[in-house]
Every structure is written in C-alpha cells, then in structure tokens.
Design goal:
Helices cover about 5% and strands about 45% of the residues. By secondary structure, it is mostly beta strands. Among the domains are: about 270 residues; about 60 residues, Sandwich (Immunoglobulin-like), CATH 2.60.40.10. The protein has a 12-stranded parallel sheet with strand order 1-2-5-8-13-18-23-28-33-38-41-44, sandwiched between helices. The protein has a 10-stranded parallel sheet with strand order 3-6-9-14-19-24-29-34-39-42.
Length: about 500
Amino acid sequence: MKNIMLIIFIIFSLNITATIINIPVDHLTIQGGVNAAVDGDTILIQQGIYYENIVISQKDIVIASLYLTTQDTSFISQTIVNGTQNGSVFQIGNYYESDEVYLIGFTITNGNGTFYDNCYCGGGIYSHHSNLHLSFMNICYNVLSTSESYPNGGYLGAGIYNNSGNLYINNSVITNNYIDLFAFNIHTTAYALGFGAGIYSCSSTNGHSLSLNNVTVSNNHIIGYEIDDVIILQTGEGGGIWCGNAHVSIVNSSVENNQISIINNYQQNASGGAIYSGNCFLQLINSNILNNSSSNFNGSNTGGIFLGTYGTSTINFTNSIIWNNLHPQINGTSSSSLSISYSDIEGGISTITEMGTINWLDGNIDADPLFVDPENGNYHLTALSPCIDTGDPNSPFDPDGTITDIGAFYFDQLGYLLPPDNVTISVNNDIVNISWFPVVGATSYSIFSSNDINEVCENWSLEVSNITNTFWNTSVNEVSKFYFVRAYAD
C-alpha cells in the first residue's frame, strides 16, 4: 500500500491537472488512452484481454489495472495485454527522449519483439532511454525467434529489453519467455545471438540501474539447434538475466529454473544459465539462485552466474542461497571480483571457478537448505532448515523479529516453537515408545512419521496431534520407520 501511494504522489505531483482515463469507458483501447494522456495521467484498465501493441512516446504516465485502486492481486491475471505475435507488447521511448512510465498490476504476453540495430528486442517490453517502473506485473510467454528470412542477428530480452535507461521491478514475475535460435538450411554461414530470455538490460556507457525487489525470474529459456546440418554460430548468454554496464541490485528475489541449451555441432557458446554480467556491479541480498542450467554440445558451462569477458564485473553476495545449478555455479575472468558472506553455497568455494578475486567472508555454509517442496517450486524454508537465523546478524531483522534468514523467503517463527529436546525412542514387542523433554511455552505436541529419512519433513504423515503430555506409543509393523515431534503454542 505504501509503495503504491508513493507512486501516485510522485506521478501526480508532475501535473496538478492530472486525470484518470478509464479503459474501455473513456477509450476502447489502451493505445487510445495513451494517445489522449498527458504527463501525470493514470490510465486505469478494467479487467479483460486487450489485443494490442502499445507505443508510448514522450509521456510520463501510469498504466494500471484495478489492482491499483483495490489492492486485489487477482486483477493481475485477469487483466491481460496480448501482443498477438505482432511486435513488442509495449514499446516505450526512443533514442532521443527519456520517459517516466509506471506499469502496475497486469499481465503482458505473446509479444515477439521490435527490430532495432540488427536485433530483435523485447518480446514483452521494449524500453529505450526511459525510466521504467514495473510493480505487481506478470511478464510471460513472449518469444523471440529466428526466421528463414532473417536468420542472422541478435535476439535480446524475450521478456523485457531495456537499453540505456533505468529499470525498477517490484513484486513481479518474469516467467516462461523464450529465445529460439533455429538454424535453417540457407547454404551459408549464419549467426544467432540470444541474450537474456527473461531480462536484458544494457547501456553503451556505465551508470544505468537495474533493480529487482521481491521478483521471481523463472523458467525462461534460450534454445539453439540446427536444421538440415546448416553451419551456424550460436551463442546463448543469461537464461534468466543479461546485464551490461549497469549497477544491479537483486533483493528478496529468486532466479530459478532458467535454461540455456545450444545443441548444434558447429560453433556454440552457452554461459550464465541464471545471470550473465558484463562490466557490472552486481549485488544480491537475501535472494536465491536455484536449479539453473547452461549447456552446449560439449557439455555444461556455468549454470549459475557468469561474469563476462568484457569489462570488470564485481559481485557481492549476502544472505543468499546458490543451490543445484549446473557446475560451475559461478564463473568469471581474471578481471572479475566476488565477495560472499552469510550465504549457503552448494559445494562451497570449490564451485566458483576462474575468478580474479574471491573474498570468502564470514558466515558461509554448505548445507541442504531444506526447502518445503523444491520439486514443485516451493522454496520456502522448513522448520529444520540450516538457513534459519544464520544470516548476517548486522542485517535488518526478519519481520518476525528474529535474526535474518538466508534466502529469499524467511521462515516465520511467530507462534512456532523449537523441536523438543532429548527425544528418545524404544521398541518393545512391536510397540514404539517415544518420550521427550517438555518445551517451555508449549501447549500441545504432534508426532509425524515417514518410511524415508530423506523425505521433506513437511511431507511426513501425521500420526497424532494435540498431545498434552510428553510421551506416546503405538504399534508398528515396518522394518524401519522414522519419527519427529513438533511443539505448538496456542
């Protein structure tokens, strides 16, 4: 609520005559509303599907769904702008101007990009020399693809393309955007470069900002393969995010399940399944880099973060999880630098390669984070996670008043008690007897069981609940069975 109120105040302060333009009441299309708007206006979109490709030029405006006025997140999925594979869904700004545009609370889908400087750019959003603010947005299922008529060139930012402007993303999802690098039998050498299936953000000079706060970048793909044994040079960089000449801040966010797969047998390169950084200062705080991959015909290549070969990239990690990415999880060059503290890194420092400088600071661990259900995309922490209360003690506390957790999603300890101490289990004539020491503040206990010690605790079967004493027994027929006791407070 505070963020939205601040946005409205900033925009409306630019023009005391600002008005709200309702779509489709005042204008049938969003583009009609944009054309009628002046600086400071808000275009309010009723729920529905709008088949449009919208151009915004020399406007400082807000475009929002009814989420803006209701705070009802269901309007994000109910208000859709569909680009019908007829260009970028939103094209914002140009080389000669700097717009200030806010997009709030809707879905952008089915765009296929704008042709600029020998490249197809920005399937969902193409932004050039503008300050773009995205809040509570869903950017999904946009595609950049080579064609037989135009096989050569670059394909940049299937979800979002940002050139020489500042990009601020909050409380949003960028997912299932694709760059397809086909190779057609055109009897010549072709090349295709795919950068940033989720987000591409770059500037010709240093200084622009890319900021993600409470954002999920997931399941974006760069795919390259050949048809009819054509000779093609294919490069895929940054399955989730590609950034260059930028100051990048990623906070309370998750970059997960992004993929680069280049599978022709000529010349190919694949690097940075999660993030590719070229000449950037990159800061990750309380964020996750999970299950990303990057592979070519010769094998895997930096599934997590790759610090590119041009310029000097510096990356700082704090309170973050890097887990289950194809190794190496972080890769760099002799000019790159990494500082990492209070983070959970699978494989530890051994999974970081070819880095010029590594500052391995206090508080790092290498332990299974114990997510609730990673197979189905739930990366919240379970009660037994080693990431709970093990973040930097000098960081701001979690909302429950405890030391910050490692990762993007903190474990809420309000109303939850630690497991009982000194739990003992004995078996006598197929009767299992379990006892434990009382927990201060507990009003009841529950007991859970499983036949698989490796099963996530949250998926164990409930045997009994609301026990008020500190012992319990039951008959058992299994050869092996595992139990744990949980304490509760009213």
